[in-house]
Amino acid sequence: MEPPLPLAGLNILVVDDDDDSRFYITTVLEADGANVTAVASAVAALEVLADWQPDVFICDIAMPGEDGYTLIRKIRALKADRGGQVPAVALTAYADSEDRIRALEAGFQTHVPKPVDPGELVEIVANVVASCGS
Fold first, then answer.
1. Euclidean distance between the first and final Cα of the chain, in Å?
2. Region of residue 51 (phi > 0: left; psi between -120 and 50: alpha; otherwise: beta)
């Protein structure tokens, strides 16, 4: 008997303006059982959150228009039943310690530098969800 997939049944919102990154992240998460909605902008992410509450949110930082820092601040300003408390992962090429601190201060639970190994990404998402009690 195979062990259950680590992300089985989790609803995950992925926001990344890069098509290849979005495809990679979605493929990795879906292979481990997650239901993924992937969008290319902060505006699209807020539209999705108006109708759907994911278990976890994964967001790029450097995006045109509105960056991930601004987006997470807007999400944290929402009421809990509208997604304001959703566990959030910053997945970004901005990888130094100052970027990590800035991401955590903005409202992300964790900061993950790109590129990320598929197994590590799954483990990080599972740990964030478990630590936030979702």
1. 26
2. alpha
pLDDT at position 2, please?
Answer: 62
CA atoms of 131 and 95, how far apart (whole Å): 23
DSSP state of 30: H
**Got the DSSP string for 44-104?**
HHHHHHHH---SEEEE-S--SSS-HHHHHHHHHTS-GGGTTT--EEEEES--SHHHHHHHH
- 10, 55 contact by CB (below 8 A): yes
DSSP secondary-structure letter at 33?
Answer: T
Give tens-digit pLDDT for 25-35: 999 999 999 99
